[in-house]
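Pilot study result, target chain (110 residues):
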Amino acid sequence: MKTCEYCGQVLLDDRDCTCDGAVAERKKRSRIAEAQDIIKDMFKDDGESLIPAGTVDLLMNSCPLIADGDVKKVTVQLSDGIRAAVKYGAGGKIEVERVDTSKVKDETLT
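Predicted structure:
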């Protein structure tokens, strides 16, 4: 037998509490897990543009801070022209962004 940490209700049969605090916490945990899955997928090693593992860890660790509202945005600019951002979006969503920028320059021979 367990009790809800938000309202103190006794929960039978290992059911989840339906009070506002418990529901909000489950939604927040779900958003964090989903954002971390997006980061893993978006910044996985594709063999062309290597993202340092520490950078991926930094972005993943920023998700709970963003979900709590402690941090609004985390942006990382890598030396090879890749910019990564995790930010608080509308409706409490967590937005993950990757921008690959490359400059192409050429000149004539004469």
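One observation from the pilot: The chain is about 35% helix and 20% strand. A full batch analysis is planned for the follow-on phase.
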